[in-house]
Amino acid sequence: MNGQADAIDYQAHRDFFREVLQEVHDIMAARYDTREVKITPLGMGGSRLSIPIRVDGVNSKGEKVRFFAKILGSSELMTARTIQLFKNIFLHTISKDPLFDLNATAEHMAKHQYDLLNQIHELKIPTARPLGYHPLKGNLWLLVEEYLNARPINMSKDMTESHLETGFTYLAKMHKNGIYHGDIKPENILFAEKVYIMDVGNFTDAAPAGEKMAYDLACMIASFLDYAPPERIVALALKHFSKKDVRHATEYIELIQRRPDINFSNATKEMLISLMLGSGKKGKETD
Ligand SMILES: Nc1ncnc2c1ncn2[C@@H]1O[C@H](COP(=O)(O)OP(=O)(O)O)[C@@H](O)[C@H]1O
Ligand SMILES: [Mg+2]
To answer: Less Cβ around it within 10 Å: N or C end of the chain?
Structure first.
């Protein structure tokens, strides 16, 4: 290996990094009236699909302001594509059509997230208000959102049954309004007194509404397994979804168990599926 070439490479990376940070400072000043910007990277979870950061600064009135932002780029796109492809291949093996779409560019990913968060916010479902998305060097994009003082539910154990039910009411409201999430998981549900629905995924345009509903519902039921026994979670789901919907959602439980970010045992899976299939006398009869 040529040591000098290596050294030049590292310098290029450092320069690139500095320039991107400078761009973030410039965007915050020009678009968000925010100066004296301090950027703090937030924790990197297992299946992170962006570089999440907290942006602190001061506005022109001298007030302290804080934003959440995430940097999206080609490596995040590739990770997302791998995950989407894996899920589609798994669906193929159980003779189901592909459901999950691939983002062509980081710009598309930023725009998609901005648009869906905006729609969720307009329904008055707690989420972060998206504020804008902006190009950076090297095909990176910066998505800026309202900062929420809340943590993912897998990091806060204070969820009660009433919060879980609230989660189902939000999902049912989204579906009633034609909005499908596509990536419900514990990391994407934030909690601090309120339940916040965050970080949407990407269904194909051709995916039938019934399949998208069933996948979202299965993801939410599975995401809540750490907070209540399966029979309670299924009972809460049945307060807001029909028996038919809950039965349909069983078709996705196997796929969800293979996700690295929602964990439950085979025994729990079997019990969950049988509860969802047999799902009881209390559910709504129709859609
Ligand atoms: N608006 C926000 N305010 C504060 N923290 C947030 C906000 N949005 C996300 N987070 C935190 O950052 C993490 C990553 O954000 P997320 O939108 O899920 O990005 P990714 O696409 O990388 O999964 C979340 O799991 C959550 O802990
Ligand atoms: Mg996320």
So the answer is: N
Atom of ligand 1 nearest to the CA of 128: 1
pLDDT, position 4 = 58
Q: Give Cβ neighbours of residue 229 (< 8 Å, ≥ 6 apart).
A: none
One domain, residues 104 and 24 = yes
Report pLDDT digits (tens) over 51-90. Answer: 899 999 999 999 999 999 999 998 888 888 999 999 999 9
Strand partners, 71: 51, 142
Q: How many whole angstroms separate alpha carbon 27 and alpha carbon 268?
A: 48
Determine the distance separating the centroid of ligand 2 and the alpha carbon of 19, expressed in angstroms. Answer: 26
Residues 176 and 259 in one domain: yes
Q: What are the backbone angles phi and psi of residue 148, rounded to the nearest 5°?
A: -110, 135
- Identify which ligand lies nearest to the alpha carbon of 40: 1
Residue-number span of the structural domain to which 120 is assigned: 1-147
Residue 47 CA to ligand 2 centre (angstroms): 8
Atom of ligand 1 nearest to the CA of 151: 27
Q: Domain of 228: which CATH number?
A: 1.10.510.10
Q: Which of these three, 114, 147, 180, is where a domain ends? A: 147
- pTM, entire model: 0.92
Q: Is there a single domain that holds both residue 247 and residue 175?
A: yes
